[in-house]
Every structure is written in C-alpha cells, then in structure tokens.
Amino acid sequence: MTESYSRHIKLEKVVNFRDIGGYPTRDGHKIAWRRIFRSGDLAKMSPGDEHHLSREIVLKSVLDLRSDEETKRGICPLSKADVDYNNIPFMTDGGNREEEDKLFAQFTNMGQFYLHLVRRPEFGKCILEALELIAEAENHPLVFHCAVGKDRTGILTAVLLSVLGVTDKDIVEDYSLSGPYMEELMSSFDDDPEIAKSIQHLPAYFWEATPESMKTFLESLQREYGSVEDYLYAQGAESALVENLKKALLA
After folding, report:
1. Residues β-bridged to residue 250
2. If we measure between CA atoms, which residue out of 132, 162, 156 comes closest to residue 144?
3. Predicted structure pTM score
C-alpha cells in the first residue's frame, strides 16, 4: 500500500508550509513524502510549531533563502537546537529603487521576473548550492523557505521538481497552491511598518501566484536553455547532481 500524507501542514505562526512529496515522475517514480518541504518565513513560529516540526516531522535541516538583511529580523528558532541551519541568500539587499521600478514595469507577471532572476550568474550559483545541499540524504527531512514561500522558494521548487521528472502541469499546480496564502501574508505585513514601507512600490502582480506565471517561467527557461536540466549545466552543475537528487528524493 502506497503511503499518502497531507500536502498542506497547518502551523500556528508559519504560513505556506507544505510537503512537495507525492508528485509522480515521468519514469514511474514518485517524490518521497516527508523528506522535502517548502515554506514561508519560519522566524516567528510558536512553541507548538516547534514541537510539530522537531518531534513529528523530525526536521533535520533548514535552508533559508532570504537576504542578510532579512535574516537580521530573525531566523528559524529550531536552528538553536539539533536542526542544521543553512543560509543561501538568493537575492542581495538594497538596489536602485528607480531601476527596480523600471524593471517591474516591463513585466506583466511573476514568471517574466523569475526568468530575469535566473539569467543572473550569481542567482544560478545559488540554485546549484541549494540543490547540492538538498541532494544529501542525511540532510532530510529538509525545509527551504524565503519570506512568503512563493518566489525564491517557488523558483527553487520548480527547478527541483523539473529535474526530478515531475511534469510541468504538476509544477504549475504546486506553485499555484501559494495563491490562497497571499492575502493572509499581506495582512501580516501591516503589523511591521518597516516591511510595509519596503514593499509598497511593488506591482499588484507581485502578490499573485497564477498558473500563467509558472507556465511562462518554465516555457521560457526551456526555450532558452533546452531544458531545466540543461539550465543547471549552463550554470556549472556537476553531471552527478541530478542523479544524486533522484537517489535522495525518489521513492
């Protein structure tokens, strides 16, 4: 009998935490349940959340994709216990606001923005570094997260699932599951004036997780590089990386 679990894991103070196991692959395998998770910010988890993740999920590793400035506001409290904490900043702090606004004005959905990001050599290097960590079975169960669990986390999830053999249709569906959490997350920003001020210039599409965005990203990446796997090789991935990911995560 095949084991099945709930994809969405309801926590008290952490939003958008879910298992990305269970998806079938093109070669007849499935992503193993309860080995790899995606999430929004983990810094403000409750004692109940800590208990659930440490005692029931038995989390071994946290991969934080946030910037240095973001981590100064707090990191996963489990990193003070037996959980291995890793920070690989997918984006740097600061930047030119005027240039950012011009950039966002060029796009109509997040998929176009994601493609812009992954074209950057430094971003590709971070993706490889994160995947190498995920490929080590001794790091599992592992959760990777950013601030809201949609964009940086969404890009890494899409790349990971694609090279594991998950169909574009399922990757788009997984990405879209973040959509219902966006209103709750945006409301939480109202409690932090500093964050609210820093995001007020962002376009409305920035807070969406539409199927069209992920479809645009995947189709554009595949058109430009041949496949998501070829994208990784263009960033300098070792030939064994994809095989190691499959060994660690496929059931």
Report:
1. 31
2. 156
3. 0.94
